[in-house]
Design the sequence.
């Protein structure tokens, strides 16, 4: 049975004239049309209702001709059990085993993949140390990079500021970053000094071969960090990290 999606509720009350069928046997379902998130729910045997939100900061014309009102939304791929205000995580907090994870050595940049939705506004990065505290840091900062290695934003240099063991540390970006495109990004831990902290993460992989396949899920950049300022670009992953680690943005 073919069916026309002709009714819409939510940010935009204009009809969404999209024809499709047959209607999936299980409702509700999530779908994404271009940058638009839509929730399709049953409205009887002959029609469905579409609840939608648009990721962005300006009005946009959908391919159907409907003008969408900008309503930034964040749709997680799993239930987001993050603390209030956190909008994305590198892994679900509720299932992170908090393994004591060595992610890098001094002057290296540790990278961990995170999935971000277009329209999200990233203001802070949170990383949680594990059993080893930052022992006599010289410089360190957190940063956000594109999967291609371009800097999106970074925190200020923390110089010798203490970072204790088993401590979530939230640092503000020097400028808020609005995610332009849904996809994979890298959280980066840049550290130079004595005693690199270990980070809470996941269980070890067999050898990291799958997670190291491009684009790598975690690893260490070939670019060095020494001055306290996050590099404008970082090179390719030079070494695999066989354990994923936890970070979040807010």
Sequence:
């Amino acid at each position: 049975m073919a069916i026309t999606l002709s009714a819409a509720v939510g940010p935009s009350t204009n009809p969404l004239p999209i024809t499709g069928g047959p209607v999936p046997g299980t409702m509700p379902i999530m779908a994404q049309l271009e940058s638009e998130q839509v929730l399709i729910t049953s409205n009887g045997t002959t029609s469905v209702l579409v609840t939608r939100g648009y990721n962005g900061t300006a009005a946009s014309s959908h391919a159907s001709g409907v003008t969408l009102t900008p309503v930034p939304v964040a749709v997680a791929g799993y239930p987001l059990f993050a603390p209030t205000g956190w909008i994305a995580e590198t892994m679900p907090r509720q299932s992170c085993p908090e393994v004591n994870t060595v992610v890098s050595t001094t002057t290296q940049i540790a990278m961990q993949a995170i999935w971000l939705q277009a329209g999200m506004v990233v203001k802070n990065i949170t990383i949680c140390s594990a059993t080893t505290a930052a022992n006599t840091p010289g410089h360190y900062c957190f940063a956000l990079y594109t999967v291609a290695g371009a800097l999106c934003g970074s925190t200020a240099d923390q110089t010798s500021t203490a970072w204790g063991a088993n401590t979530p540390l939230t640092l503000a970006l020097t400028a808020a970053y609005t995610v332009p495109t849904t996809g994979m990004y890298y959280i980066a831990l840049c550290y130079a000094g004595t005693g690199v902290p270990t980070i809470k993460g996941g269980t070890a992989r067999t050898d990291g071969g799958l997670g190291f396949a491009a684009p790598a899920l975690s690893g260490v950049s070939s670019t060095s960090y020494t001055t306290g300022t996050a590099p404008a670009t970082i090179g390719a992953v030079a070494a695999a990290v066989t354990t994923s680690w936890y970070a979040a943005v807010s």
User: Anything to note?
Assistant: The chain has a mean pLDDT of 76. Residues 209-212 form the longest helix (4 residues).
